[in-house]
Write a structure and sequence with these properties.
Elements lengths: L3 H8 L7 H23 L2 E13 L4 E3 L6 E9 H6 L8 E5 L5 E4 L1 H12 L4 E5 L4 E16 L2 E5 L3 E3 L4 E3 L2 E7 H4 L5 E2 L3 E6 L3 E6 L8 E3 L2 E6 L1 E16 L6 E5 L2 E9 L12 E5 L4 E3 L2 E10 L5 E6 L2 E7 L5
Parallel strand pairs: 1-4, 7-12, 8-13, 17-20
Antiparallel strand pairs: 1-3, 2-7, 3-6, 5-7, 7-11, 9-17, 10-16, 11-15, 14-16, 17-19, 18-24, 19-23, 20-22, 21-22, 22-24
Length: 325
Amino acid sequence: MPSLNQRIRARLPFATYSPEDRKIIAVCFAIAFFFWLLVKLSKDYVLHEVLELHYELPMGRAFSTEPPRQVSIELGGTGWSLLGARLPARHLKLELSVGEAPVFSLSPFELETRLAELLGNRITIRQLNFATVRIPLELRAQKTLPVVLQHQLRFAAGYSLMRPIEIEPDSVTVEGPASKLAELQYIRTDSLRLEPLKQSVDRTIGLQNTTPGLRVFPAQVRVRISVEQITEKTLYVPVQIVNAPTADSIHIFPSKVLVKCIVGLSRYSELSPEDFVLVADLEQTYRKDGRNSVPLELRGQPHYVRNVSYTPQAAEFFLVEESEE
């Protein structure tokens, strides 16, 4: 029975060759590959590329409408010429000087001439998908605009905002054509959707720039959403009398009213009856069931409470005048 080494040699004929024979075979393979590559690179090829256009604008000027930034092109040439031009690995980019004229114009012929200078005479431009452009120039301006957060928040049961949502910075600088800046009133953020929300959030979010030709900086803002548990609190708030008629004394019943509200745990202990303003305006009195009644009106409350209710909604009052002796 043949050994393992003999079976391997039988399957790999080159293993039986001498070192000199193996060198000769390797040289032959290299020469064959060289001539194969020579033939391949001598053929003509067509290459589809994207040409990027960069514009050098005069200081303080801007395009009134956005110019084309990319152009689809078709190039032709031998494999040697394309390889010599470092295509397709090369990133094709053309710098265009706009100049001081009030209207910038660029024709396909001008663009093709500039591209030919960039590529050299060994590469032909077979196709250039570009139409003549004429774009007026105008003043470049800056404007500071507030940031508007696009958000959809749904809190878990028993949770709510601890304080208003913070955006840092709350305004950004927008730069571009003056005519386009005049139309803008604010800059929106990308949409932020969080649910169910039961803990604070601190994250960076991008800004939407839907108008071509405008630059927004910074391009992102920081959003802080402080979340806490909430609970109900009840207090007895004194009623304040306003627009009282002339009288020796005025009695109102009840003199204190039960107020209920929802408040965060961080503010629960500091919330007091003095934080509410509950008013009985005696110019709005009416009689009901033979009694002098006045509606109660809540005219002041802390910004951090919500779902405020109070009972009763009206009070009775009595005017007392002392008799002259």
